[in-house]
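SAMPLE LOG
Freezer: B-3
Tube label: C17
Construct: single chain, 59 aa
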Amino acid sequence: MTRSVMTIGQLAAYLQIGKRSLYKLAREGKIPARKILNKWRFDRHQIDAWIRQQGGPKP
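STRUCTURE (predicted):
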């Protein structure tokens, strides 16, 4: 079963980008993210929608 909430490491692997780039996107509000207990978390459904809005391939 695929989890709907991902950590920074899981999302970096999913998007095939570095964690540092992902931290930057999250801090700048350029990717849907939220901080929970000082840790970044990402909702997979929001990320998939964000990818489609960016013109990327459908996951």
